[in-house]
Design a protein that fits this description.
By secondary structure, the protein is an all-alpha fold. The chain contains five helices and two strands.
Length: about 170
């Protein structure tokens, strides 16, 4: 039963990774295409798409947030490892647990306040891209930070489980 659950969770994880990668590639391709079209329209035809620059900025926001989620997923986010060569692996794991708990807390607070900001955007009926509600374009911020917080906590649980499992092996 447990192995069946593990297989299903692994499939869900691979499917989620696939969707994230497709979204990243699609957004990056769309951004590059839109920027090139805008440049050609301006330089060759002395015209342009009125909302293209704002859309490119929003795509950059979405790419940055989704890229952060993907980097955290792969445990490839920016980390300052200035002192890790001084300590044994178990001490480094304990330090990383503390750092990941702190990162999860910070991301959770940012997600909460970004959500509050979205509520203000809804209340004031802010718009982007001519007439699109701004909260639709900016919803990626609280969602991404909530996912980051979740991923950091999963990392903490995995590290704690790894430490406990190693400790159990030694005994």
């Amino acid at each position: 039963m447990a192995s069946g659950l593990a297989v299903n969770l692994d499939r869900l994880d691979r499917f989620g990774r696939f969707l994230e990668n497709v979204a990243l590639v699609t957004l990056l391709s769309g951004m590059i295409l839109l920027a090139v079209v805008q440049i050609v329209l301006r330089e060759v035809f002395d015209t342009g798409i009125i909302w293209a620059d704002e859309l490119v900025r929003l795509i950059v926001l979405w790419l940055a947030m989704m890229g952060a989620v993907a980097a955290c997923r792969e445990d490839r986010h920016i980390r300052i490892d200035a002192i890790t060569h001084l300590f044994p692996d178990r001490v480094i794991d304990v330090i990383r647990i503390g750092v990941d708990v702190f990162a999860a807390a910070v991301c959770g607070v940012i997600a909460w306040h970004a959500h509050r900001y979205l509520q203000l955007e809804i209340e004031f009926a802010d718009t982007v891209l001519v007439d699109t509600p701004a909260w639709i374009a900016h919803i990626v911020v609280p969602v991404s930070f909530a996912v980051l917080s979740y991923r950091f906590m999963v990392s903490v649980i995995k590290r704690i489980h790894g430490l406990m499992y190693e400790e159990g092996q030694v005994s």
